[in-house]
Structures are given as structure tokens and as C-alpha cells.
Specification:
This protein is an all-alpha fold. About 90% of the residues lie in helices and about 0% in strands.
Length: about 45
Amino acid sequence: EANEGVATYHLIAVLMLASNFLCKSLPNVVITLFFAEFYFLLG
């Protein structure tokens, strides 16, 4: 159950990162990476 949640989060994170890189909005990428680190520290 937990693994499925992490896998889903990873998929969403990858899609977010991909769209951010395509839009060339570096600040959003940094924010996304920070959120990901924060999420995994809590998890």
C-alpha cells in the first residue's frame, strides 16, 4: 500500500519535473525538488 503511494508520488513528481523543464521554469523545479525531499523526510 505504502509502496503504491510512493510510486504514484514518483510518477507525479517526474511529470511535474518534465513539464517544468519543458517550460524552462527553474524556480519551480527547485521548489518541486525541495518538496520531494521534505516529503521523503516525513515519510
